[in-house]
Structures are given as structure tokens and as C-alpha cells.
């Protein structure tokens, strides 16, 4: 009868609902997590706007003007002029006062005590920090700047995609990518997945922090940026691996800024910028190496 058909249809759909209850539960959990991330991002945006409003006139980040030369002569890749930086939070703490430095080629090493503002300087150069004043001018577009944090970002995807991050493309073929992994003592990772760069893993769990850091330096060899910014990028590696990583960076880039603590890495830099960080007065010292 028609009533029987309707009953069977309702029963059928109820069975579908019961069989997919776990999927609906997972979907609800994902929706809740996305809502939380949305809230976090809105809070972060509010903090950025508040910090920009309360931390000075704002940092000017732009290209070098035609014919610009450094005070020491020649055209730099990076020119920092009168940079003053403040910490987040209220009241803001002065980190760096009136910093001026030029970088044409080679490396600039940032040192100083914890909390002195080393990472903040790097983020400002990368365009990731707004709180402060002064000017940062770069003789390159943003695609030719690569920022390497201490904890590299490992995206969900293939081993090939880890090397191609963040731009997603390269002129290198797979043989070139494999050669980069071997140079950074990561060949065992390739062998572990049967030599397949298309292998997909949770690379953040699969690789140790030291391996992740070496892979992030592989990204420098893939993309060959004009400027690389290294924020303790080698900290989880031993001295031998660290030496290899700096050799790769110094050959692949025209210039680089880095934060590190081992005296052995000074040999890879031409200048050392020390943030004194004492008393909150923003003092700094610059010396040739």
C-alpha cells in the first residue's frame, strides 16, 4: 500500500542517518574547530591593529629608489634606516632604537640576549611586524624573500611539495630535488618512501625537528631567493649539519640575515649586529667580521 511505501522510505532514510552518525559528529567537531580558528584570527587582527596604532608612526616597507646608494657606497640589497621597534603588549617595551644598517651581499648575524628583539628585527624585515617606526627598503620583490623560522611549516602533501613550498613550482626536475635532499643528508627520507617524491606523509610527525630544518634549507636551494631570513633555523642540528646548511644558504642567496648562537657560524657572515637588550633602551652594536 501507499502507507507501507511511505513507511519503508522513512525507515530507509532513518537507517542512513544512523549509519552516518559518526560522520555527522566529526563534521560538527570540525565546524567547531574552524569557528575557534576564526575567532583566533580575528583576535590576532585586532592585536595587530592595536599594536600598529600604539607603537609609533609605523614601519615603511618598500623598494629602493632608483639610484639609491648606501652611505658606505654601492647599491645595497637591504637598507634599514632609523628603525625603532617595540614589543607587543601594554605598555610596549622598547626593543631597538634608531637602527640603521645596509646589506649588499653576504650574511648579517643577529646576536643578543633572550628577549632583546632579534626575532622582531627579522620579522620586520620580512614585513611581518608593524609595531615601530623607520624604513626598511629592499632591492627585490616579496617573492624573492624567504623566511625560515625555527619550527618550519610542514604542509600536508607530498615530499616534493615540501621542497617546493611556499611558491609551489620550480624549474628543477625530480633529479634536481633528489640531489638537494642528498646534499642536506636527507637521502634516507627518500629511501624510506621507496624513492618516491610523490609519497604523502604527515611530515611534521615523520621528520625530526633537525630534519625539518634541513628540509627548509632545501627550499632555499630550490627557490634561490635574493634574501633569506633565518630565525634559529639550524638550532636543532649538530655543528656538522649546521655548517652544511650555512654553506648552502651562502651559495644560493645574494644576502641573508640569521639568528644563531654558536660561534662557529660567524665565519659565514660579513657583519654582526648585537642587540644589547639591557635596560630596555634599545641599544645595539654593528661590527664587521
Keywords, please?
12 strands, Rossmann fold, globular, alpha/beta, 9 helices, 289 residues, 4-stranded mixed sheet, 6-stranded mixed sheet, 2 domains, transmembrane, 40% helix
Describe the structure.
The protein has 289 residues and is of the alpha/beta class. It has two domains: 2-53; 59-289, 3-Layer(aba) Sandwich (Rossmann fold), CATH 3.40.50. It has helices at 2-19, 21-54, 118-126, 159-164, 174-183, 187-192, 203-206, 209-223, 239-252; strands spanning 58-63, 78-86, 94-103, 106-111, 132-138, 145-148, 157-158, 200-201, 227-231, 255-259, 271-275, 284-288. The strands form three sheets. Strands 6-9-10-4-11-12 form a six-stranded mixed sheet, sandwiched between helices. A hairpin with a 7-residue loop joins strand 2 and strand 3. The protein is globular. 32% of the residues are buried. The mean pLDDT is 84. This is ABC transporter domain-containing protein. GO terms for molecular function: ATP binding; ATP hydrolysis activity. Keywords: ATP-binding, Membrane, Nucleotide-binding, Transmembrane, Transmembrane helix, Transport. Belongs to the ABC transporter superfamily. ABCD family. Peroxisomal fatty acyl CoA transporter (TC 3.A.1.203) subfamily.
What is the rounded Rg? 25 Å
Quaternary structure classification: single chain
- Give the CATH level 1 class of the largest domain: Alpha Beta
The number of E-state strands comes to 12
Largest β sheet strand count, sense and barrel closure: 6 strands, mixed
Poorly predicted runs are: none
Q: How many structurally independent domains?
A: 2
Biggest sheet, spatial arrangement of strands: 6-9-10-4-11-12
Strand content: 15-25%
Briefly note the CATH topology name of the largest domain: Rossmann fold
- Name the average pLDDT: 84
Q: What would you give as the CATH superfamily of the largest domain?
A: P-loop containing nucleotide triphosphate hydrolases
Q: What structural category characterises the helix and strand content?
A: alpha/beta
The rounded distance between the terminal residues' Cα atoms is 93 Å
Label the overall shape: globular
Q: Which H/E pattern describes the elements? A: HHEEEEHEEEHHHEHHEHEEE
Q: Number of DSSP helices? A: 9
**CATH architectural designation of the largest domain:** 3-Layer(aba) Sandwich
Assign a percent range to the helix content: 40-55%
Family: Belongs to the ABC transporter superfamily. ABCD family. Peroxisomal fatty acyl CoA transporter (TC 3.A.1.203) subfamily.
Protein name: ABC transporter domain-containing protein
GO molecular function: ATP binding; ATP hydrolysis activity
Domain ABC transporter: 78-289
Amino acid at each position: 500500500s501507499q502507507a507501507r511505501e511511505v513507511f519503508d522510505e522513512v525507515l530507509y532514510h532513518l537507517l542512513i542517518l544512523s549509519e552516518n552518525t559518526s560522520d555527522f559528529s566529526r563534521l560538527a567537531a570540525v565546524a567547531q574547530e574552524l569557528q575557534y580558528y576564526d575567532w583566533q584570527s580575528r583576535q590576532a587582527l585586532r592585536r595587530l591593529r592595536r599594536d600598529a596604532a600604539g607603537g609609533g608612526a609605523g614601519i615603511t616597507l618598500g623598494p629602493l629608489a632608483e639610484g639609491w646608494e648606501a652611505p658606505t657606497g654601492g647599491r645595497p640589497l637591504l637598507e634599514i634606516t632609523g628603525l625603532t621597534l617595540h614589543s607587543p603588549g601594554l605598555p610596549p617595551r622598547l626593543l631597538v632604537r634608531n637602527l640603521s644598517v645596509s646589506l649588499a651581499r653576504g650574511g648579517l648575524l643577529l646576536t643578543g640576549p633572550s628577549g632583546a628583539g632579534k626575532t622582531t628585527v627579522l620579522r620586520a624585515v620580512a614585513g611581518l611586524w608593524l609595531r615601530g617606526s623607520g624604513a626598511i627598503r629592499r632591492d627585490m620583490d616579496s617573492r624573492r624573500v624567504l623566511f625560515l623560522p625555527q619550527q618550519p611549516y610542514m604542509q600536508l602533501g607530498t615530499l616534493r611539495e615540501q621542497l617546493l613550498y611556499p611558491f609551489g613550482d620550480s624549474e628543477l626536475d625530480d633529479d634536481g630535488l633528489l640531489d638537494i635532499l642528498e646534499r642536506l643528508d636527507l637521502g634516507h627520507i627518500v629511501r624510506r618512501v621507496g624513492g618516491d617524491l610523490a609519497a604523502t606523509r604527515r611530515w611534521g610527525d615523520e621528520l625530526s625537528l633537525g630534519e625539518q630544518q634541513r628540509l627548509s634549507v632545501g627550499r632555499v636551494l630550490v627557490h634561490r631567493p635574493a634574501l633569506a631570513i633565518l630565525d634559529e633555523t639550524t638550532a636543532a642540528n649538530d655543528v656538522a649539519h649546521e655548517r652544511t646548511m650555512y654553506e648552502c644558504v651562502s651559495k644560493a642567496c645574494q644576502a641573508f640575515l640569521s639568528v644563531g648562537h654558536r660561534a662557529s657560524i660567524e665565519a659565514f657572515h660579513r657583519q654582526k649586529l648585537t642587540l644589547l637588550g639591557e635596560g630596555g633602551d634599545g641599544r645595539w652594536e654593528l661590527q664587521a667580521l
